[in-house]
Amino acid sequence: MNLEEARRRLVESLVAEGIIRSERVKNAALKVKREDFVPESERRYAYEDMPLSIGYGQTISAPHMVFLMDELLDLKEGMLVYEIGTGSGYHAATIAEIMGEGRVITTEIVKELAIFAWRNLSRAGYSDRVAVIACDGVKLRLREKPDRILVTAAAPDVPYPLLDLLKDGGKMVIPVGVFPQKLLVVEKRGGEIARRYVTDVAFVPLRGEWGFDKKRR
Ligand code: SAH
């Protein structure tokens, strides 16, 4: 089975499982080539529904997790989306594809991965819509408030700077806690914060000042 065929089959099964619910997410899943975002040795596994190694102890999330989060983000054309944890750049590419018009700013704490992701995104044709910044994404000061925030590493709890950064009326999708981590949708409305638990998940831990590898304040 070639990769095109494998991609089509995986998308069909994710639709059947109820993970992919919208046409927009389905079309993006069919369009973005996951094999172009993994190391050469992992290409043939690109359409197995599991996380794959991208080096530096990090992984590209399983496709069902990427598209579950994309559906929860409720993306609309023209939005500004902020991602913490670029990894391979695949998730950011799917978001850009779903929005069509719109911008993604994605941050990666491992410099080598930021470069890897930037190469992948450029080759795949997303360099005009996705910006990659090598930094601790929780600490970055953005001038513009994002409509959506996606965190792809598990934080001890929802980091305060991200709640502050999120636009009013905006949504954040984030895994929190220790294994099994809880996937949450956090909404900000009129200054009020609502948290909704979705499901148990397994992500690599968030690093940096608001992560697990450093004591906070
Ligand atoms: N979304 C990615 C998967 C990311 S795995 C993809 O589509 O491939 C989580 C990533 O978060 C790892 O690459 C890790 O290095 C990064 N990360 C962890 N803590 C971070 C932080 N504080 N700021 C930015 N990136 C972080």
Automatic annotation (TrEMBL):
<comment type="function">
    <text>Catalyzes the methyl esterification of L-isoaspartyl residues in peptides and proteins that result from spontaneous decomposition of normal L-aspartyl and L-asparaginyl residues. It plays a role in the repair and/or degradation of damaged proteins.</text>
</comment>
<dbReference type="GO" id="GO:0005737">
    <property type="term" value="C:cytoplasm"/>
</dbReference>
<keyword id="KW-0949">S-adenosyl-L-methionine</keyword>
<keyword id="KW-0489">Methyltransferase</keyword>
<dbReference type="GO" id="GO:0030091">
    <property type="term" value="P:protein repair"/>
</dbReference>
<keyword id="KW-0963">Cytoplasm</keyword>
<dbReference type="Pfam" id="PF01135">
    <property type="entry name" value="PCMT"/>
</dbReference>
<dbReference type="InterPro" id="IPR000682">
    <property type="entry name" value="PCMT"/>
</dbReference>
<dbReference type="GO" id="GO:0032259">
    <property type="term" value="P:methylation"/>
</dbReference>
<keyword id="KW-0808">Transferase</keyword>
<protein>
    <recommendedName>
        <fullName>Protein-L-isoaspartate O-methyltransferase</fullName>
        <ecNumber>2.1.1.77</ecNumber>
    </recommendedName>
</protein>
<feature type="active site">
    <location>
        <position position="61"/>
    </location>
</feature>
<dbReference type="InterPro" id="IPR029063">
    <property type="entry name" value="SAM-dependent_MTases_sf"/>
</dbReference>
<dbReference type="GO" id="GO:0004719">
    <property type="term" value="F:protein-L-isoaspartate (D-aspartate) O-methyltransferase activity"/>
</dbReference>
<comment type="similarity">
    <text>Belongs to the methyltransferase superfamily. L-isoaspartyl/D-aspartyl protein methyltransferase family.</text>
</comment>
